[in-house]
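Pilot study result, target chain (141 residues):
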Amino acid sequence: MKKNFLSVFVFSVFFLPGLLTSVFAQSEPVLYFCEKYDANKGEIGVSDRFTTGYLTVMVKADNPLDLEDVHIQFDKLNGRNGKFEFYKKFDYSIDRDMSYVYFAKNSDSDLKFEEPGFYRVFLLDDNDRTVASALIEIIPK
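Predicted structure:
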């Protein structure tokens, strides 16, 4: 009986609180990619591997991003030295209350990956601080 009580006590003290605690996989904004965004269908072709060409960068958060002027920056992996190097940067304006936003080809930017390789993509605030980032692989067509 003592052994059974001890087992229940150990379970209650060490494991039960972990089961009752809310666990969230993502507490910060998430940046990811799709082929395009459609107002009716939503995200089309979500992946982290694409062929060269135009892409859409998606950002989703649980709360408003509270940002107005933002930048999407591409850094490309240099295969010779194994370091990411600046590739290009695009400027955007968004509404402060947005928690779900997409960045796509428009008249001001092309969001085009011309060269195959590995890229680190950032959403930056107006002080160039990282809000969200992700890696993407671009392969030849």
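One observation from the pilot: The chain has a mean pLDDT of 86. A full batch analysis is planned for the follow-on phase.
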